[in-house]
Amino acid sequence: MEEKDPKDIAKSEKEHKDQEEKLRILAEADAVKGEQLTITESGEIAHENELRQFALGSIEDPERKYEVYYKGIQKLLKKHLPTGKKNKVARDYIYEEKNTYLSRGKRINKSGIRGADGRMGYIVDADEIFKIVMDWIIANGSMVDLFNSLRDLNVAKGYGTRIF
Predict the structure, then answer these.
(1) How confident is the model at residue 48 (pLDDT cuts 50, 70, 90)?
(2) Which of 2, 30, 46, 82 has the fewest other C-beta atoms within 10 Å?
(3) Dist. CA 97–CA 162, nearest whole Å
(4) Is residue 25's pLDDT more than 80?
(5) How far apart are the C-alpha atoms of 164 and 157, rounded to whole Å?
(6) pLDDT at position 70
(7) What are the DSSP calls for the chain, one per residue?
(8) Quick check: 60 and 122 in contact, CB under 8 A?
(9) What is the Cβ-side half-sphere exposure of residue 56, based on CA atoms within 13 angstroms?
(10) Residue 85 in contact with residue 138, Cβ under 8 Å?
(11) pLDDT of 164 strictly over 50
(12) How many CB atoms lie within 10 A of CB 99?
């Protein structure tokens, strides 16, 4: 019988231990399967299905979207932007930047068609615009400040600036 080289034996043992460690790590990763133990408000331990919460948490809520858009963004803009015919063009600049962001980059064309509706956009985008409008009001900013904030947000997202 041939004797094995001690280096080969040590190498084989190390490979075997490494393989066992990999399998142990993979087995631990499989152990949870989307459930987590949590403590309820009453102090009891409960199972929480993380997978279900993750999936349902990303669903858009039409009622919340309505609240943020109409009772938040639009209401604040109507109240705090200057009124009257002489300020319509200035308001339109603000609305164009707002709607471009809410429609994820769809700008109004020369025919007046956007090809998307900001009211039906994503709630995370509406929340972002709502935050910008609120910060602008709190800071007692000018229309230029609001326009620059909205335009910079659009440019940062790669939506560019109005061409005409």
Answers:
(1) low
(2) 2
(3) 8
(4) no
(5) 20
(6) 92
(7) -PPPPHHHHHHHHHHHHHHHHHHHHHHHHHHHTTEEEEE-TTS-EEEEEHHHHHHHHTS--HHHHHIIIIIIIIHHHHHHS--SGGGHHHHHHHHHHHHHHHTTS----TTS--SS-GGGS-HHHHHHHHHHHHHHHHTT--HHHHHHHHHHHHHHTT------
(8) yes
(9) 5
(10) no
(11) no
(12) 20
Amino acid at 134: M
Query: How far is the C-alpha of 146 from the C-alpha of 139, rounded, in Å?
Result: 10
Buried b (16+ CB within 10 A) or exposed e, 125-138: bbeebbebbeebee
Tens-place pLDDT, residues 50-76: 555 555 455 677 888 888 999 999 999
Q: Read off the pLDDT of each residue in 131-138 and give the average, rounded to a whole number.
A: 93
The string of DSSP letters for 79-105 reads HHS--SGGGHHHHHHHHHHHHHHHTTS
User: What is the C-alpha end-to-end distance of the chain, expressed in Å?
Assistant: 88
Q: How far apart are CA 36 and CA 38, in angstroms?
A: 6
CA of 87: how far to CAs of 82, 91, 107, 121, in Å?
6, 6, 21, 27
